[in-house]
Structure formats: structure tokens, C-alpha cells
Amino acid sequence: MNIYRAMVRSWRFCRQAIRIFALALILGSASLFSAAPTAGSERVALLLRLNGAVSPASADYVKRSLELANERGVTLVVLQMDTPGGLDTSMREIIRAILASSVPVASFVAPSGARAASAGTYILYASHIAAMAPGTNLGAATPIALGGSGFDGDDDRDRKQQQPRNAPEAKAVNDAAAYLRGLAELRNRNADWAERAVRDAASLSSIAAQREKVIDFTATTVDDLLAQANGHTVRVGEADIRLDTTGLIVQNVEPDWRTRLLSVIADPNVALILMIIGIYGLIFEFLTPGAVIPGTVGGICLLLGLYALAMLPVSYAGVGLVVLAVALFVAEAHTPTFGVLGLGGAVALVLGATILFDTDVPDLEVSWPVLVGVGISGLAFSFIVARLAFTARRHAVVTGAEQMIGISGKVSDWTDTTGYIVAHGERWRAVSAERLTVGVDVTVIAREGLTLEVARKPRRDQRPLEGREKSA
């Protein structure tokens, strides 16, 4: 009865707590929505910074920032760029987000000395406002052929247009040229130069870009950009909007923890290191079951490395070499060849890491120090396995049938040449070439099935006694 009353009181308390929590949640949501700004209510310009290669992390940062701008209904988004280019997939994600944005986007190549090469040129053309700081440049938008080195290089420098070497390169160049020309026509910019930037890898300085009507104007600072953008008419969706940028408050949008984590993981050097740690961790876990820590750390690192590989362009040949290296390491661990298979695995791992990422963007390549570290780790693994194999050969056998040879026992029951002995705390059937008595110490000299062959264990003083007899 007391238990029933306690249960009833507990249930009533839980119901009251649920009601209070629900009421607090409703009030909090109401205050949150009432504080949220309506579309077009904020006289704010969000400032985004895209520095370095265009990667999955930077694409996620720009996309989520544009979603925030659309939700807040800000007046303008300024995308400040300094990029050597990047991945085609990430570039197209950013461009799709810009084209779908209900808030105008002004791309700004700054500060002086910055560039918007390759993928940056496409993003600049897709933006509603294109501006550059003095001393900056854009262009060189030719797509790099996968596994190749660009176009067929002639020594004739007067040749105005380089020709693709094969059909796949021609398809990539034509697709990129049509894509950039389409963006230029959408924003009423110089479409002919856009095509030259793709086919001839042409580049322009900021002054030349303004003269060629590739950009709208040059600006020294973000405030200067806002001042010059005031009064410009841009097309956002199906409507033309006249920008009013007077008195806008500039707010910086810094990458959050998710973007920072993604930028670290998506670095090819970090991705490769995570994969190597994961592979070695799992191998050591299989070699020493129950260690837990190597397997746990290795599993987490391997999953993070595979996640990064899913975002980056990889070469199938590189993946194949890495898989071959893992197979050779496992074979070396289970059938030690004193380092031969391990050395082959180290070579395959270094070669696979060298060609694993199929991109020529400087910021998205595996650095030489990392490759050297990968090679040293492979050689160290081979050395450790070989050393363990040599050490194991010198140690006595401790498992299996061979482990019984040479152990000591004591006769517990004996008749003629057969009987039973106790060895290692177990009772074994035994045979001997000599007659034994109960309590005699014996040594196992052979084993056949479950029967041991034993011999009388010599006494410690037997050899010295024989020696004295011989000397006498």
C-alpha cells in the first residue's frame, strides 16, 4: 500500500514537472519568434571572408551564412575573397547558393595583393556586385584535367588559343566556358573575356578588369564598396532591386565550430594522417585483442578519414595502393617475412598517398613532410614486426603440442613401462622405455595424441658425480 501511494505521488510530480517544462518551452519559443527580425527589417551588411582554397568547408560556411542572411532579411552580403581556386563541386555549391539568395551578394577581392583565380573568378561573375581592391587580380579559369597537366604546351607564344589534347579535356573546357559565359550574360558582364579566361587562362588586374567591364568598380575598403554600391540596380530572382547601402552596419560572420572542424578534416594532409592512424590502430587491436584503446582511436580516426575522402576528389589508383598497403601490413603481421611484406606495404602506402588526391590546387595537396612521415611510419611498422618475429624465434614455445616437450612431471601411477604422470596440474597417460616408480620426477620428451613419452629426470648431482668418477 505504501509503495502504491509513493508511485501515485511520483506520477503526479512528473505530470506537474512536464506541464511546467511545456509552459516554459512555449513562452521561450514565443519570445524567440517575437525577437526574430522580419524580412528586410535589418539595415545590416554581413561580411563573409573566403581565404584559401575553395573547399567543402568554405562552401558550407558560405551556404549557411547566406541562409542566415535570408532568415534575418539583411540588406547586403559582402563576400571578401582571396583564393587560388579550389574544387569544382564546392565552387558550384557556392554559386548555386548565391543565385538562390534573396539577399544581394557583393563579391570583393581584397585586400591588395589578393586574387580570385580559377574558382574565385566564377564566384565573382555569379555575384550581384563584383568589386576588386587595387593591386588584385582574377582569371586563369581553365579547368585542370583530371590526371593531366592542363593543355598541350606549344612553344609558339603568339598562339592565341591553346587546344585541348583529347576529347575529355575538350568537354571539360567547353562546359566551363559555357558555364562562365552564362554567368556573365546573367550579370551583364564581359562574356567574351570570360570565355578567354577559360580557354586561354587569361588574367586581369583590377584596373584592367574594370576597363574590360568584368567587374563593376574598384574599392579600397568595405566601406568604400558600400558607398559605391549605393544606388546600383541588381536583379535578385525575378525582381530588380535598387540598393540602398547608406548607413549600413557591417557585421562579421565568423566560421563556427562546425565549419572549423570541417576545414580541419577536409585538409588532405589531416585526412591522410587520420587514415594512417586508423589503419595502424585497427591492426594493433587485431594483433593484441582486448587492448581497446588502439581499436577505439583507430576506428574513430578511420571513419573521420573516410568522411574526408568522400568530400575530396580522390584517385582510384591511389585508393587501390593504400588498400594494397593495408593488405601487405596485415600479411606481415600474421605471417612474418622479416620485413619483406612490410617494406612493400610502406612503398605502396607512400605511392598511394602521393596520388591519392586528384587535384592540383596548392592548398589541397599532400605536403612532402606528411609523405615522409607516412613512409617513416610504414618502415617503423615493418621494423617492429620483424623484430617481434626474430624475438619470437628465440623464445621457448608456450602454446600448442610443442609446449609440452621438456616440461617436468611426477609419476602418480605406474605399471611396467606405462602409467600416469601429473604435469602442469593435469593427469596424463605416459609411456617410458624404462621402469619407473611412483613419485619419480620425469621429463616429457615426446607427445603422441594424448599420450606423453617420458624419461627419468636426472638428479642434479649426477653429472658432477660422473665427473668425479672419471677424474678418479
TrEMBL record:
GO terms for cellular component: membrane. Residues 1-35 form the signal peptide. It is a multi-pass membrane protein. The chain crosses the membrane at residues 261-283, 314-331, 338-357, 369-390. Residues 149-171 are annotated as: Disordered. Residues 269-384 form the NfeD integral membrane domain. InterPro entries: ClpP/crotonase-like_dom_sf (IPR029045), Membrane_assoc_protease (IPR052165), NA-bd_OB-fold (IPR012340), NfeD-like_C (IPR002810), NfeD1b_N (IPR056738), NfeD_membrane (IPR056739). CDD domains: Clp_protease_NfeD_1. Residues 53-221 form the NfeD1b N-terminal domain. Residues 401-455 form the NfeD-like C-terminal domain. It is found in: Membrane. It holds the Pfam family NfeD. Keywords: Membrane, Signal, Transmembrane, Transmembrane helix. This is Nodulation protein NfeD. The lineage of its organism: Bacteria, Pseudomonadati, Pseudomonadota, Alphaproteobacteria, Hyphomicrobiales.
